[in-house]
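Incident log, structure service

09:12 report received: a user says their structure output differs between two submissions of the same chain.
09:20 pulled the input from the user's history:
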Amino acid sequence: MALYGARKGYNAGLSIGEVNLSRGFHVMAGPCSVESEEQVHRTAEHLAGRGVRILRGGAFKPRTSPYSFQGLGEPGLKLLSDAAARMGMLTVSEVMDVETLPLVAGYIDILQVGARNMQNYSLLKALAKQSKPVLLKRGMAATIEEFLLAAEYVLQGNERVILCERGVRSFDPLTRNMLDLSGVALLREMSHLPVIVDLSHSTGRTDIIAPLARACVALGAEGMMVEVHPEPAAALCDGVQALSFDDASRLLADITPWVALRAKLQADRFPLSLPKRNATAG
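09:34 re-ran on a clean worker, output below:
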């Protein structure tokens, strides 16, 4: 615990171009899987028009069943990259193994490590040897300490790490996982790294995302990740937890005043400059 505790006071900010992921509240949104050119371009255009700067989408999908759709591979990476570039967005997509790391890194801005690979130490060590930002998802049964120590593997050579809380396994069948909001607070207390919350995989449903998004803003998280699809009912992967375009628009509008209020409160509490001292004061 000493190693990552010692890092708490260090925060140079994690920036990609003009986006500083250590400041403000950022939305990563897009389809679970890239399925077609039309699907990903429509999604990128809709989200960019509502201020979203980071487009997510899977090209390599680790699925529980070998018979489920597992992504388009490199063509999916190219579609995602092209759609994002057209709208001036950044991209985030999952890398599954050391072998495909160079391929994914050639197209994608933020490399995602999924929950199943949180303790894939060969992959984590390889990610430490490259310079692109790494979004590390918490394992489905990982403790906070295990999560932070997994991040340390990447931090050995790459300081650009983002933590992603995506829920842990629970006994309750009403949600896909149990969203650990206390874990989000702990991560922000114990680490200097930006914390993103995946509201789609943690809940597996769309009807409770808005109040949980507001909770993430209030907790001080640096952002959230949600799945958005033009036609969720026709999605090849996790359609039940994907927001429609209308739902996504309502969600983004809903959190806007909360994000603005947080920014104002933070500015009031931590002003960028101190008032000048009166020259005549003792």
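09:41 both user submissions now match this output. Likely a transient worker issue. Closing.
09:42 reviewer note: The first strand starts at residue 15 and ends at 16. The chain has one domain: 21-269.
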